[in-house]
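Protein modeling request. Please complete all fields; requests missing the sequence field cannot be processed.
Requester role: graduate student
Desired output: 3D structure, token encoding
Chains: 1
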Amino acid sequence: MQARRDVVRHTGSVVIAAVDTLRQEPRVLLARQYRYAAQDVLWELPAGRIDEGEEPLAAAKRELMEETGYTARKWKRALYFYPSPGFLDETMSLFVAESLTRGKAKPEEDEVITKRLVPLSSAVRMVNKGIIKDGKTIAAVLWLATREKR
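Delivered output (150 residues):
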């Protein structure tokens, strides 16, 4: 038996859970932007492609700064997964970024991004109500919520 498989090759990507821990309840940084494929404006965590030859942590730091203007002093890779392994070889690394400093964003020309620090419990409610529809963001928010309960 033969089967044809179409596979999209990808250099990999990063998603960043930027967490503000200065208040009693941690807040997570969400970005809202139009996504052409979904034909919708989505709430997501900052994320992006790893450039050829770039290390994942360097990509995470670059994407966080470009999309939101934030930088972080504390970084940790928390998860490594395949976002859509049925047709895509992309791997994704979730980094948790803490000790945040606000700065000026440098989005790409076609990116119009609104950002907001949201209490983690509110982000979980946004997931459960279907307001957050992005898979990587759902996984990261629920992982963060599980981590906080320890």
